[in-house]
Amino acid sequence: MKLLGQGRTASVHDYGKGKVVKLYQPEIPEEDADREWAASSLAFSLGIRTPKPYEIVRIEGRIGLVYQHISGVTLLDVIKGKPWAVSASAKSLAWVHAEIHSREGGGLREQKPMLADHISAAPLLTPEEKQRTLHHLDRLPAGYSLCHGDFHPDNVIVNDGSWIVDWMNGICGHPAGDAARTLLLLSIGSMPENTSRTISSLINLGRRRLKSAYLSQYLKASGLSYTSIDEWLLPVAAARLSEGIPEAEKEQLAKIVRERLTPDH
């Protein structure tokens, strides 16, 4: 099968007849694939523009999810190719995100218990820091909306519209928490060690512009306040520490957590 894309958790291959198969790496727990299948199937049934899920298969011992093949480029590629049009890309990202949140996510994994589990397992934080973060999370409102859980420009395919992919982190929860996760993903991320200072500066400038434009448009589309989203950044940042990301990014996240735990924040 022709390889179409390769990620940390899975690879995507041509499956023929207008279909692709997303094959999970052998070390990825099968429950992760089950969660993606449940979330993508629910999103499709609710009218979200996402590739149609067909079936679950096993190929050479690896579990695979068969989807409709969507041709196009990612929104991230669009931004890279037309950085001067970042505002238009951010608007598209925000309004599609708000559309997802307009649907109910009943039956999927719940947001707050999931975040609590990840916070408890987070490295770089002391037991006291974890406890204070969990206490903060406990005070936040529960929600019942469909949430993507990993919504960023590389998970949006663009052709004659915007298609949402990669529902492995799909959950039922509060839209503000999902938006906070997106703001975090747009804000930080490690770069290769050989990245020049000039390139790093340009990338950081682009991130700030994209984040600002996304936030402005999402507030308009959702009707939420900035404060309601900002309240979720502490637990979302702490929870992301438990993911398989570079150490440099974890250090940035730990810094955010500690800054937000200070009394005068």
UniProtKB/TrEMBL annotation:
Pfam families: APH. InterPro entries: Aminoglycoside_PTrfase, Kinase-like_dom_sf. Residues 14-184 form the Aminoglycoside phosphotransferase domain. It comes from the Bacteria. This is Aminoglycoside phosphotransferase domain-containing protein. It comes from Paenibacillus stellifer.
